[in-house]
Amino acid sequence: MPSDPSFASPSPSGITLAPQIPICQSDIPLDWYSQEFKPYAEEYLALPDRTPESVLPWLDSYVQPALEHFGDSLLLLAHYYMGGEIVKLVERYGGGVSDSYVLALQARQNPEKKIIVESAVHFMAETVALLAHDDQKVYVTNPKAGCTMEMLAKDHMVLPAVDQLQERYGDDLMVIAYMNTSGRIKAIAGSTGGAVCTSSNAHKVVAWARKQNKKILFVPDQHLGRNTAWKLGMDLERLVTLPDPKSRGASWTLEEVGLEALDRAEMLLWGSSCGVHTIFSEKQIQWWQAQGWQTLVHPESRLEAVQAADGVGSTKYLWNAVLNAPKGAKIAIGTEGHFVRNARIEGAKRGVEVQHLAEIPEPGFSHAGCGCATMSRNDPPHLAGLLDLLRRGEAPNLCRVLAGDVVDEGTGFRDRLSEAERNQLTHDARLSLERMIEITEA
User: Fold this and answer.
1) DSSP letter at 171?
2) Residues 6+ away with beta carbon under 8 Å from 417
3) Which of 47, 124, 196, 328 is the most buried (most CB within 10 A)?
4) Residue 168 sits in which domain range?
5) Residue 208: what pLDDT?
6) 406-411: which pairs have CB atoms within 8 A and are 24 or more residues apart?
7) pTM for the whole thing?
């Protein structure tokens, strides 16, 4: 594993396996195991408990032979938001845990790694594949692990809107695609001269886009787009939020939105959002502040929460805030629940108290720290199963990730492009990613 300071070590000493936390996205069905992974799931569920004494020997029996088989050619990755067990287990086996920007660059920065296994959502693994070398293969432990925000910005939803906007504005339209999008959306951004962004560099990318004097379509998170505009001092009256794709899909016209408002707008916001982050409110923040706690939120939260909080930033920003806090600090964090649980464990080692912003022990407040249901589909049986099947040369084809792949998070059905289509998509999507890297690294 590269000694990249951007990688976090959520559990440098020991592993604590904990029960699952409440999940807020109850409209998304929880995972069921595909045929290839059922034997591993059955063994896992038959363990007497979920303590390290039970789980680790079982997991070692599959993971260690795979590590020995692939040696230095294997790279394990996980995102901060994965359930605590996966984050700690990936790190235990020499893998890296970080935010989406750092993860996206891992194939490119480590050409000696030929097999890359990511315990994350599908779009994250696809982004790694977009920047991978031809001799590198990327796999995701569970292809049905997705993102509700990305689900509401599929290409069949976004393309009709882009077509309408291009018909009216032509080359003046530029698409900025948040990292939480498929390669197909990133390719749209690239073809319009736009770029990808993450929550940590969105302000840099949007500032760059504004200098191009283009009309910006920010896809998919309306809250990150609005918060970025506020951070840059943009006129919020010149933002237009497009119809909610959850209820309207692509069945709307520019006339319904309002041509005058669209013509006047500097930035258009796709209408989706993250169900985990929209629960945070100014009222919650004020409660914690009144108790003497520092409040930090992710920029996918509503503007009112961002404006009221003591700090706002990406997962990397939030993690570093805990690592760098002085002993005795008290921090209430508004982001995905698995992340906060991991941060709480790490903070306790440093004498820092960490709580989830939504978990307020008083009537009138939600007591549930939201965990992302779709990200939670990556679990020990999928990690053990995929590594064992890879070692045996029997890895499910569905777990292999190529640029342009789209997997239905409910059925597992995959739509894969032809080679010619994939080459064009890779070209356009890489343009948008390269622009992001150039803007960020500059």
Assistant:
1) G
2) 402, 403, 404, 405, 425
3) 196
4) 150-275
5) 98
6) 406/154, 406/155, 406/182, 406/184, 407/122, 407/143, 407/144, 407/146, 408/144, 409/28, 409/144, 409/145, 409/146, 409/151, 409/374, 410/29, 410/144
7) 0.90
Q: Which residues pair with 267 in a beta bridge?
A: 216, 239
Dihedral of CA 211/215/221/224: which sign?
Answer: positive
User: How far apart are the C-alpha atoms of 414 and 225, rounded to whole Å?
Assistant: 30
Q: Return the structure tokens found at 252.
A: 């709307």
Run of H or E residues at 333: strand 330-334
Instruction: Let me know whether 269 and 171 are in one domain.
Output: yes
Q: Would you say the C-alpha torsion 61, 8, 122, 416 has a positive or negative sign?
A: negative
| Residue 18 bridge partners (DSSP) | none
* Count of other CB atoms within 10 angstroms of residue 211: 7
- Determine contact, residues 148/275, Cβ cutoff 8 Å: yes
pLDDT in tens, 90-104: 888 998 888 788 888
Amino acid identity, residue 282? E
Is residue 9 in some structural domain? Answer: no
Which neighbouring-strand residues pair with 415? 406
Provide the mean pLDDT of the chain: 89
Q: How many domains does the chain have?
A: 3
The DSSP result for 90-136, as a single string, is: HHHTT-EEE-HHHHHTHHHH-TT--EEEEES-HHHHHHHHHT--TT-
